[in-house]
Amino acid sequence: MEAVLTCMVDEKIGPGEMTLRLVQTAKELTGCDGAVAVRSPAIALEYVLKAINLDKDSAVMISALAPYWLYVTLEKLGYKTMILDVQEENALVSVETVEEAIKNGGRLLILSETMGILPDIRQYLALEIPVIEEISHSALSYYPAEYEEEQPEADSAPASSSDSAKEEEKGRRAGMYGLYAILGMEEHDIVTAGGGALVIAPKRREWSPLKAIADQAPSTDFMPDMNAALAFVELKEFTRNEKVRQELFTLFSRAVMSGRHKTFVRGQDNNSTIYSFPLVLNSGFKDVKLYAQKKGIEVRQAFENSVIAFKQEELSSQCICANSLLLRCALFPLYPRLGQKDASRIVKVLSSLP
Question: DSSP letters along 62-101, please?
């Protein structure tokens, strides 16, 4: 809050120095060639589509569990949207599903890395269609180091001098394999600015057209300093906060091991970002919510802001797994400042769920 108050006292509220510092920090942490901080994820998506010059007749593939703003923005811009079902074990769209959608006209994949879980990005890149990574949940995750060996990029941005040996061992960050990445910073995203997004260009050849668009954009497109101040602090504190999230996630996972309810399969546990604690229920959500409330714990539907949540009647028959997860997946509180008392209470609830 001190960073925000400084902006207010200095009357530096609009896009300015803090926005530039946020972008520079994002570049250092990800190793990307360039980035733009904008006021909303919708503006970020519009910039990306302009940068890749996607034809209006093209069909864009998105997950049924993708954030609803993706669907709304694509519709407003006049693109055809192909909404794909997910795998129940990890809430991600499978490569096989994308392959089938390509046969039916899909030309661009916006790959949402739901709940911070990283896919095997190599399989999607092998389909030889443009891939945009939506990393609002998976920001600052790492792909395995062996991916780097198989995907050499001569014109990639050089590694930041601040990169540690540990980072180099883990490989590139989430968002560094697609043509572009969108990091939403809304209320329920892993990094929040209270609103806004980063448009990230991993490589130099993608940064050039994005920079040209940003250079011609009105100032009202860009993230204000007040929001940037929040995001800047969160990025700076991310490693420390993520360590706490990892510890809480391990604690909560142990609590449900012998129960009927399961969390998602995380194939790269040590590398993926911990986005809260999603639990796929073996019973009704309302019963679990009521039980948790009686114990003083607030839970919410994990995918209440997803595409299928707003288009359930239309999509439930074709996106069976996504619809099932919408109805059965609960999100339990998990954040760095969760005290020991509250954490213990959540463990007790998780271990005794009906």
Answer: EETTSBHHHHHHHHHHT-EEEEE---TTTS---HHHHHHH
- Mean pLDDT for the chain? 90
* Per-residue pLDDT reduced to its tens digit, 36-57: 999 999 999 999 999 999 999 9
Alpha helices in the chain (DSSP H): 2-9, 17-30, 41-51, 68-77, 95-103, 121-125, 145-150, 165-170, 204-215, 225-236, 238-256, 285-294, 307-310, 312-315, 320-328, 340-351
Q: What is the pLDDT of residue 191?
A: 95
How is residue 110 annotated by DSSP?
Answer: E
Q: Give the sign of the dihedral formed by CA 32, CA 36, CA 38, CA 43.
A: negative
C-alpha 132/C-alpha 182 separation (Å) is: 8
Q: What is the pTM of this model?
A: 0.91
* pLDDT tens-digit series, residues 136-149: 999 999 988 777 65
| CA angle centred on 334, ends 328 and 338, rounded to 5° | 145
